[in-house]
Structure formats: structure tokens, C-alpha cells
Specification:
Strand content of chain A: 15-25%
Oligomer: heterodimer
Function (chain A): Acts as a positive regulator of hedgehog signaling and regulates ciliary function.
GO cellular component, one term (chain A): cytosol
Radius of gyration of chain B: 23 Å
Cofactor (chain A): Mg(2+)
Shape of chain B: globular
Largest interface: A-B, 55 and 47 residues
Number of strands of chain A: 14
GO molecular function (chain A): GTP binding; structural constituent of cytoskeleton
CATH class of the domain at 220-428 in chain B: Alpha Beta
Number of domains of chain A: 3
Largest sheet of chain B: 5 strands, mixed
Number of strands of chain B: 12
Domain Tubulin/FtsZ GTPase (chain A): 47-246
Distance between the termini of chain A: 35 Å
Amino acid sequence: MSIVTVQLGQCGNQIGHEVFSALCSDIRGTHGLCSKKENESYQDSCKERFFCEDESGVPVARAVLVDMEPKVISQTLSMAARSGHWKYSSHSHFCQKQGSGNNWANGYSVHGPRHKEAIMDLVQKEAEKCDRLGGFFTIMSMAGGTGSGLGAFVTQCLRDAFPTSFMLNHVVWPYGTGEVIVQNYNSVLTLSHLYHSSDALLVHENDVIHKICAQLMNIKQISFRDVNQVIAHQLGSVFQPTHTAGGGSGYSRNPLGDLMETLVPHPEFRMLGLRNIPQMPESSLPYSTFSWPGLLKHLRQMLIANAQMEEGIDWQVRPPHPGSSIPSTNKALHFNTSIANLVILRGKDVHGVDLGSFQDPSLYTSWLNPQDAFNAWKTPRAFNKYEKSAALVSNSQFLLKPLDSIVGKAWNMFASKAYLHQYTKFGIQEEDFLDCFTTLEQVISSYTNL
Amino acid sequence: MYDEALSSFFRNVDTRSGDNGPDIYKGKICSLKARALLIDMEEGVVNEILQGPLRDVFDSKQLITDVSGSGNNWAVGHKIYGCQYRENIVEKLRKTAEHCDCLQCFFIIHSMGGGTGSGLGTFVLNLLEEEFPEVYRFVTSVYPSGEDDVITSPYNSVLAMKELNEHADCVLPIENESLLEIVNKIHQMINCGKLGSTVKQNSLVTSSAGIAKTLQAKPFDAMNNIVANLLLNLTSSARFEGSLNMDLNEISMNLVPFPRLHYLVSSLTPLYTLADVNVPSRRLDQMFSDAFSRDHQLIQADPKHSLYLACALLVRGNVQVSDLRRNIERLKPSLHFVSWNQEGWKTGLCSVPPVGHSHSLLALANNTCVKPTFIELKDRFMKLYKKKAHLHHYLQIDGMEQSCFSEAISSLSDLIEEYNELDATKGGPRIDPSRLKIAV
């Protein structure tokens, strides 16, 4: 099954490019560390999922590029073409000239309706190229105007046009100390709207990835490209082909559907966080050895203690003992309760790995069966030069604090009515804001009371 | 090659068959014509331009001139010439706009103290709002200093301020005193340079052709170049690529929290590049520090000791997001931000540095430090107005009444009061409003 990616705005297009680059470079590599047959099956599956072929034999990304100004798309298209290994279709992009001015209302209420037909046309064409459409993967940031506002509108349109397809929104959360002054408004508007039309939100926070670049990757002068490459690596480790538990011998044919099924059992809980291990500079790889028990021990603690990466984990945090009454304050502050978790293992000796520690019922809320709450996908085919790697996609309280912080800051600004005239100018009124705040306070409350 | 970056400010005209040739959209540069309208009610300045090195850049059809000038009288500029030239101006504006694929913004460049720039200039501002309501209006205004030799400059400025309050999207006030100080500083640096350090000539923020002119009594060319560089840096991210683009409409969106509070204090760094200093990161961090120092502001103001409503940093060159973050974290504690915008930073990263530099920074601040400038203006106005000095020159103009003056000073007073109210919140206790309660 194929996935159509929709890249929205500067962030969406920059990240999208890194994702396809990473996927392509992974399948071209000779570091699969598995049988030839396995490798070929992996390559075919990846190609079917993300690329189609054109006459020249160069893989063409199954993607639609959308932006309200031309520079980023133009750069993205040419960078891909220059790589020589893959490219974007020359007919799959839509751009305008004037931008969205970091204004969610402009993206949603003006650009959205104005360009709906043209954009959906492109999406339809990409969808028709797929033998079987597995769903949509949209990439956007929520701080700006296009990715956030137009992105929310496009997501709604996709939902209306493809009511039975799966939709996963990859949302990038901005740095806390500002890239855009009205980012918290744009974020609140985006998240609340996406909550109503998307199946799930897969989140990356710039602050977190920045720390990974600084502390794990040892990059001195971190650029957005560096950040985007780490994000692409993490996404690749989720979306490259794997075998699901009961899926028979072939690679999973419905990755998005499987993801939704395992991780989103209840519509009120749609926020997914992503962690992976190990993460290090490529130059250090030859000098490192990994063991599955070691990797999984760290990954589990990252989950429990809500650690953002494999360094600086708080090992003191423990899940509550079953049967004991847990003081709710303790629980809220330290221990990260999960609804559902998915662990993806790639590389050597993957089949014998013991994942029992992730099935511990004390990690999860009580209203799901622990067997249903945890799933694992595996492949012996190593990913992106890491002999062994593990990714965790988690529907848990990972994002509770950051979400609360964003809503708090937005509310603070809203109370003073600052910048509201910029939104009402394009048709988003105070009541619309209030509705969005209400939606998100509900989400915060739901996750807090797990 | 004629590209998107050039096309933002210039048309490429096929002049082989004369001046009325068609526009060439892609390919080699034939003849670049500025997308501009030059208006003056005297001919001297415009004629000088037309005889200078840029004479081919300005289309003769883009000029509107007269002979007698406005006599440093806002009313003459706004009411008399405004009425007289209205149609002509509208027609020329329409023509220029038609040549644009996508018109995003008008830049109005004028002074506040005289008659034409101030009076006719604000008349044009009104026109732009009427004829092109969706296009942003950025105004670069040169404010008169205390020792201005035009006696009526306070009247002209206050009358113009009312128009700016009501019809501009963003105003970048500039004061000649600040420009002069910067020019002098650079001059000192060049002439009494420290041992072993030479300044790269084409890196001067005051130079246009890479030549440092000898200092004259009032070095307007050098001063004007600073403003030109300001506008270049302001538009760099719209013209060139970068990892975090910042368009002009984003500036308005992020820096104007309430419609009337749209006055932005600007600062440019570095003012020059030392040729042989090779400590990139120290130079980089110094650049950020300088942007917040009093000496680098283009008006006489000290943003560090006043209240920030919002701040934008547009960086050009080899600067990455980590450099930006490091410096924001470093400088933030010494700055005062309004309670509802504690993290109010808007940032942009443009990959292409200005000529002669490896990196540069433009800081735009919506800060209450503009208040003293406005208060002084009001004081100077009141000094004249109380004695009704020179008032008859204005009131005798058709369409001018006493109420024009009282409304204008009232508009300015209201603006000052808004800044006062904000300043009153500075340093006060921070009480976050309570959040919405949801029924569980």
C-alpha cells in the first residue's frame, strides 16, 4: 500500500525533503545486514510505499508540495533532483507568491478556500497513481501561517474527500522562546482543528530535537537542516517496512492503518510522541556496540520517566506498584502513564528479543487490556547504518506538559487581546478562539486524568 | 541574469525598441527599471538623480515634480498639491502596480518635518489605502531633531503623525541625530583605527559604491545609505533563500499587537567589518549585543531600559538557529518584555549576507522607548501652538481649520498615553489570568 505525503509550508517542505532523502539513502545502502532476499523485499516494500517509478527509472516521491511562497519549493525540488537518486514529480507542487504572513487565519480562511481545488486536484492525481492507497501523511509546523492554517484546512478537505483513508499529521512544535511571536495562537488554532479531522498527530518538538543535536550528535553550530535530518531519521525508523506480529511472512501492507489501530483506541487521545535509540554521529557508529537488552532498558525508562533522549534519564522514576493507591500528585509529576505503545525494532538478532518489560500493566491506564496496549513491529533489516535500532511511538502523557505550556501562553496573550485584530481581519473571531481553547483544555484534562 | 530577487524591486524592460518596450520576465538583464514613483514639488533633487549614475533606472514616466516646492508647509503639500496631483498620482501608481505579478507592499520614504514629504507624502499614504487596501504600507519616516532648521517642523510632523497613526501598517522612525552619530563613529574608526585593524571598505553601512566619502558638514549621502541598508536587510528574506524565511507581511503580523502601536525602532549591525579580525563566533555574539545597544538604534532611544512589546531579529549570512538561540537566551534576562508576550521574539534566517559582510543583523523592536521622541515632538508643537506662531500660513489654506491641529495633537496625545499605560505595567507583579475550567 502506498502513502501520499503532503508537504505544507516551509517547515513541511524542508522536512519532507529530508525524509525522502533518508528513506532513499537507506534502501540504497549496503548495510542491511540481512539476507539478500530480505533486503530486496524491504526495498520493494519501501519503494511501493513512498515512491513511484518514471521512465528514467529514478524513484519519484509520492508527494504533493504546497507553499504560499515560491522559494522553498523551488529549492526543495532542485535539491532532490540534484541528488540523482530520487526526485519529486515536476507536476506535484502548488505555490503562490505572497505567503501567509504567519497568520493562521490567512492560511485557513483565505488561501484555503481560494486554492482548495488546485491543491486537491494534485492530491487526487497522486492518489490515483497508487495501486492501493494506504493513507495520507501530512507534514507541517504549527507556528507559522501556511503549514498551520492552510494545513488545517487541507487536512479537513482530505478528510472530506477521502473519508475512509487514514490520515496521520506530522506536526512540528516550535522552540519555546519564539520563532514567531504569534506561534502560540497559531498552535492552539491548528491543534484544535486537527483534532477534529485527523486520525492522529505525530509530534516533534524543536527544543527536544535541538538538544539531541547538541548532546548526542555533537553538532556545534546546529542548523535547521541538522534538526530536520534527525526528525527524518526518527520518522524513517517508524515508516520503513516492518513485519507486524501476526502479519505473516511479508512486510506489513498497511502501515498507517496498523499504526492507528494499535495506538489510537479512543478518539479523545490522538497525540503521539516519538523516541528512538540509539542516536549518535555517524562517525561514532563503527566504535559502538549495542545490545538489545541495553537499548530496551533505556528505551523503557525513557518512556516511564518522560525522557527526551537516551542521556540524562531519571532512573529514579518507577511505575506504581499494582494494587497500591497512588497519590495523584506523584503520578502527575514523575511517572508517564501510557495508553498504548508501539516499539519498532530493526537489525541484527531482532527475532529473539524479549519485550516483556513493555507489557507491564502498571505502565498503562486501566481501561485497556495490556495485551492490546502494547505492540511490536520488527525487521532484521538494519536501518540507516545502525546495526540495531529501536523506535517508540507512544500515546502517553509525553506531550502533556508542552501542550499545557503552549495553551497557557496563548491564553495569557489572549486575555490581553494582543494581536487579535490580525486574525479578525481574516474572519477568525474571539469566539472561534474560545472554542479552540475549550477543545484543548479538554484534551489536557483527559491526558492529565489518565 | 534577471531573477526573482531582482524582480522584487526592478522591472526588466526591453528597451531595444525604445523606452516603452515590454517587460522581460526571465533571462538576461536588458534594462532595469525601478518599481518606484518619485514625487517632489521642487525639481532640484529629482534632477540630480536623473543626471547621476542611476539615471537609467528611473523611468521618466515615474516622476511627478513641480517647481515651487511646498514652503515647508504640510497644508500646502497635503491639501493643495494633494488635490492638484491626485489623478496623476493614482494613474502612475496603477501603472506601476500593473507591472507587478504580485504586489505585496508599498514602501513610503519621506521626512516628517517639511512640506512635500510630510504633507503630500501622507496624502499619498491615504491614497494607497483607498486604492490598494490589501497591500501593506511600510513607511520610513525621518523625524526632525531638536535643532532642526525648519521652524515649522513640529507642526508638519504632528499633522503627519495623525496620518501615520491611522493609515500606516508599520512605521520605521529615523532620526538624523542617530544617523549622524553612526557616521561619525565609522569615520573615527577608519581614521584613527587601532593598530593592525583595517576596515573593509565595501562593508561600511554608510557606503554605497564601496567608497568612503570624505566627511562633509552634513554627510547626507552616508546617512541615507544607512537607511538604504535598513530597507535592504528588511527585504532580504523576501528576496533570497534561507532556512527560516521572514516576509514583510510577517513583520507586520508579529510586531503590531494593537493597530495603532505600529512604530518600530530599528538597529543595524555590524556597522563595518574589520578586515583582519578572525574570531567568527565572538564577532557573531558581539553583533547581537550591539543590536541592543543605544548607539546602534536609528532613533535616539534606549530599548534596553524600556518595555518590549515585541522584537524581531533578521539575520543574514552564515548564522544558524543555534547561534540565534544562544544569543536570545543570553540577552533575554537583561530585557523587559510585556507580561503577555514574555517570549515575544520573531526570527528570520536568510542565507545571503550583505555585500562585504559574512553576516549581519537587523533588529526591529516594538518598544516603549519611542515615547520620548513623541513626547518631545508634542512639546515642540505646543511651544509654537500656544503662541499661535506661524499658524496663519496653515489656516489660510483651503481645507485647513483649527480642528485639524487639535485633532492631530489629540491623536498624538492618545498614542503617548497608550505607551504610558504599557510602561506602567513594567516591573509590576505578573498575574497570569486563570485558565478555562472544563467540566470533567
